[in-house]
Amino acid sequence: MNRNRKITIVLLILVIFAVLPLISNTAFAGETLKDILSKKYKEEKDICLVVKKAIAEGMNVKEVTKTSIEMGYDACLVVRCAVEAKGNLEQIIIGALEAGATSDVCSRCALEGGADPQELARIVEPEIAPIETRLPGGNSGGGYLSPSSPSSF
Q: How many domains does the chain have?
């Protein structure tokens, strides 16, 4: 009987330790990334430091970049600081583009932050929309033009 009681107590302790992290994560789950970044900004008063610390703490690089820009902070500054924090360059660019930054701003600011130009080109190139380069007026109809044929000019 004594042995069964010890096993029961050990199992209860294991269950408590297994459930405790779930309970604590649920309590903080209501706090959004925007709330977390806002709190950090109130403490630091510098969005660059906030972005760098958030990335250093292991927060999602794409979401930190996207949310910071959506909160109204300068896209160039956010991108540059995220690059300086050694965040994943592709995630930084994707986050910035999803937040509405243009690819030229992302490229310029990532380079200012120290991004590798070749890696940046590989990431940004597929994001640039191709430009249509036809002559105005549609199709010309083709064919030959001969000085001896009658002209309709």
A: 1
